[in-house]
């Protein structure tokens, strides 16, 4: 599940940051728009209440004067019947071109399902097995941590490989940039794992990008060509493709930012690069519900479809969030809101720099939904509301589940939390926990642009075991995870946990949002002379979205007086990460945070102690 939506569960302010991949995508500053609607082409309407509710909610989203959404498109399926398909708003803001059912949207990480299907097809053909180390198929794949040789395709597809996260270079661009997957593999050769394979699951885009390399190695076809021939064509998804070149046909939704219209290209094809329509995605849903069959043709084995829906989190060594039920490609194979209603559902959401999507399949009810649109609306809330409404309308459930409370329960005597104070690292920006003598706690977050701490809130302990404030619907507590890893090393990690109520409000989601870090020996002279320096990205394409929209803001190196021994690096685009100096020329990753707040970590490298160039992943920066 992604962070805002992504993960979608702790939304950030809209931006075109490459870090928004998978969820809380940048909404863009849309001009005033006149909503338009594509027609509903279904011959019958078995869910009139659900459709009416959805139409009203979408119309409100695209007409919201405070945050208008240019276009939203939706389709719902029951059995073999697409009973609702409709597009709202405009695909082009300047021309006010109405969106139609054929208008294509970049569906972001919903594309990961096609990587999982591709792997299942390769296994069906005897070309791979999910539990064989990928070095057997990719002998050129290497990393600095020797345990890289244990990574399997199952690890890649379930976010448990230990790869650092996301190759940020040329991820989102306004012109196609080839070679992203090869660039990612080359980058990984110069970095360590952030955790042992299978130790924990943390959202990882690069795992799916490596599936591209496996498909190429085992078939001789590019990933895009393989999926188009073996999945899209059999499923008759004629309005779906990977934007490997500037398209000369098809209808697309276009981002509109700062008075300019663009076409967005997502160069990480397997992890987020498909352009599609909700109608086409209903063909995929029919195949999934049919156990790999579509209109009498087998696309993938029933065993492959079933395996995608198996909970992959059961064997994880570190898993402090019980609601996370990763599948292969799926964010959740026990969708929390549906689980609250006693229904098994599978969910995948997706976000790019400009679009937000949700895809639900409820296998036993033979129900599916796809909603996609320009960012700025709550796709998860809409999707959960529509699917649960349909299940109630057709009698699958007698009533909607009760919504969970965001009202603080009565105060209670607080346990001792002195040991919980300090600095917590993550992939977003550090947190500071201050344990007050009266049992309350204060939570601060690093404000990167201001280079100072900003108070999140003050919290009191409550009878449900969580710390609450009267102004925040989220609640917090601490969790310590201890054990012995697969290499025989003992570990103990303390996490600050955040509990939120995402989507339509039917279930809690518990997230580790930071790992407590212990002070270290202050950095040596080589690192000290870098403190206070600024760095500018040099090797992104000039068409990269952050370059065009954000203006390539410099990143900076600094330290936190509250946490000696670490170096903080980042900017608005990258966010703010704490590095551990490993040598004069290298800084390493400092945290193991499952879920989404440990995603997209990097190592930082310098050519020498006095170098004016640094490398972060595959991105190169010069001293400003």
Automatic annotation (TrEMBL):
This is Beta-lactamase. It comes from Caballeronia novacaledonica. PROSITE patterns: TAT. Residues 71-383 form the Beta-lactamase-related domain. The lineage of its organism: Bacteria, Pseudomonadati, Pseudomonadota, Betaproteobacteria, Burkholderiales. Gene3D superfamilies: DD-peptidase/beta-lactamase superfamily.
